[in-house]
Amino acid sequence: MRVLVTGATGFVGSRLVPELVAAGHDVVVLVRDRSRYNGPADAEVVVGDLLDYESLPPAFEGVEAAYYLVHSMHSGSDFEERDRRAARNFVDAASGSSVERVIYLGGLGEERDHLSKHLRSRREVEHVLESGSYALTTLRAAIIVGAGSASFDMIRQLVSRLPVMITPRWVRTPCQPIAIDDVVAFLVGVLESEETAGRTFEIGGPDILTYQEMLERTARVMGRRLRVVPVPVLSPELSAYWVNFVTDVPKSVARPLITGLRNPVVCSENRIHEFVDVDLTPFDAAVEQALTEDAASRDRAAPEAN
Hints:
By secondary structure, this protein is α/β, with parallel strands linked by helices.
């Protein structure tokens, strides 16, 4: 199958492309900067920008299925508008092409719970993608644990630098994190299962934890001691400044992530397992794998910095 991957240089996309190639698919990747792509040479690289509709048609030529793995949180305070425009351009380009299926990785969370801006934008993109003339499969996930995940990187840096952590009371909100390898397995699996076309599924790991428990268990895996002290007066704005001061996570990224802590993100169903068989990775094992990959990445980067 000829498959287009948007967001191919991102955290999820860069792991998905090799798996699709290994599964025998003819993969096309849409990138804004060709020099940033370092995936399989077998994939066809098309330069384009989802914010520029005129650049998109070449990427969709002959494509039967497409993955939408793009979000603009790193772009600053206007990320909601950028996400909206990018999704609309994608819908227009895909609907005018041979695309029959689209697969979107969105976010968990109930809309009645007054979603944070970040989660609300992910859900709005889902609704925009639903308007296209193809069958949309949506996978909704909470925190994805892996080297390169913005959410997990914030957790890792906080744990590695602070023995005591003052946090918002929302740190006790439940979450169902999932390992990046499991996410990729689901993304590949739904493409190969026609029964998942036009449906929405929730995906999560085997552990339901509060954010406090995730911090504490990450600390244990890292061999560190950590005390978490939730307080009622710490606002998301102050927390974002604090995270930006303690870590290298930009405030523009930290704030929407922290604001999302107030929303429970736990799967309400597990129908995906009827169609895609994935042996879920326990949280501690996912953390250990992420830390190992992160350390290896830093070791590779060290000679380049010298």
